[in-house]
Amino acid sequence: MSIHYVVKAKKSLMQPDAAPKFHPVSKSLKPFSRDLLIKDMVTHTSLTYQEAATGIDYLFDSIPKYLSLGFTVQIGKMGYFRIAFRTEGSETPEEVTADMIKRKRLVFVCGKEIRDAVNGFSVEKFPEA
Asked: Domain residues of the chain, as ranges?
């Protein structure tokens, strides 16, 4: 399998006055929709459309529910979801409050098998029209 890249000019945040440098950036096509994913699942498994849709929708609803209960949500070999905070620090543990949390982030950590598969993809320049 191959992934594609396009060439983009990027300015350096560390040297804003420097000329931009050109970098390969992964080419992203339009999003692969929920409906297309379900149709692909139906084509390649014994699931019906409704069974696949129910599974996808249940997974979508379950992730935030179990994260809110304090769990890390592992999806088999795919990887896991967890919550992380961006916070201000304090000098003592007694001073720590929830008000110090400036941002909540959803973190997905990809499983080793998928990461290895992606790292094994060849890379080609996206053909320009």
From this structure: 72-120
CB 78 within 8 A of CB 111: yes
What is the rounded distance in angstroms from the CA atom of residue 86 to the CA atom of residue 100?
Answer: 9
Angstrom CA distances, 98 to 33, 53, 54, 88, stand at: 36, 37, 36, 10
Q: How far apart are CA 6 and CA 1, in angstroms?
A: 17
Nearest in space to 47 (alpha carbons), one of 56, 7, 71: 56
Integer Cα distance of 128 and 96 in angstroms = 54
For residue 129, pLDDT beyond 70: no
What is d(CA 99, CA 68) in angstroms, rounded to the nearest whole number? Answer: 18
Alpha-carbon span 114 to 2, nearest angstrom: 15
Residue 14 is encoded by which pair of tokens?
Answer: 């560390």
Statement: residue 11 has pLDDT above 80? yes
Confirm if 81 and 108 have CB atoms less than 8 A apart.
yes
